[in-house]
Every structure is written in C-alpha cells, then in structure tokens.
Amino acid sequence: MRFAVQPRDVPPLTAARRLGVDLKEFNQILPNLLARGFPEADPDTGNFDLDAIDAWRRARHPHLFLTEAPHARDARFVVSARLGRMKVG
After folding, report:
1. Domain spans of the chain, in order of start
2. Within 1-89, where are the H helices?
3. From 9's CA, which of 30, 66, 73, 74 has a CA 20 to 30 Å away?
4. How many Å apart are CA 14 and CA 21, to the nearest integer?
5. Cβ contact 15:26 at 8 Å
C-alpha cells in the first residue's frame, strides 16, 4: 500500500511560494519577517513549518480566515433587531 505524504516541513523555496514570492525575494525579506514573528526555520534541517506559517498569517489577518466554527444566531434577537430598524419615527 502507498500512502500520500504531505510534508509540513518544507524547504525555503516552498515557504516562499506560500507567501507568494520567489526565493530571492524571500531571502531578502526574511529578516523583516522574522522580526515580525514569522516562524524560524528548523535549526537542523533548515526547513519551515507550513502549519506555523499559516498560523502566523491567520494571526496577522484574522478577518480573512474562519477562526471559529460558524454557529446559528438566535432568531428572536435577529427578528427583534430587524423590526427595530424598520420602525419609522
């Protein structure tokens, strides 16, 4: 049997692609990224953790990511709020 393996620790080229830049630009901006909390490469392999990169991105722009499970609103509050906006003075 074969199992598909999706590595989470990736070389700098793949980390760069995750950010939408080429390797040369990634290496240039990496010091600034690290200063802003970007996850460091593994000291032994030099690879970056994609999960950590994604978490860093979500923390920077939480409004772009679904960070909690959606839930239904209580219809009583929704209806009363809408009726309240419909009332004309």
Report:
1. 9-86
2. 12-19, 23-35, 50-60, 75-86
3. 66
4. 10
5. yes
Residue with tokens 């692609």: 17
C-alpha 43/C-alpha 33 separation (Å) is 17
In one-letter notation, the amino acid at residue 63 is H
Q: In terms of C-beta density within 10 A (0-12 exposed, 13-18 middle, 19 or more buried), how is residue 18 classed?
A: middle
What angle separates helix 23-35 from helix 12-19, to the nearest 10 degrees? 80
CB 53 within 8 A of CB 17: no
Cα separation, 47 vs 39, in Å, equals 11
DSSP state of 39: P
Q: What's the whole-model pTM score?
A: 0.65
Query: Cα dihedral angle (41, 16, 62, 79), rounded to 10 degrees?
Result: -140
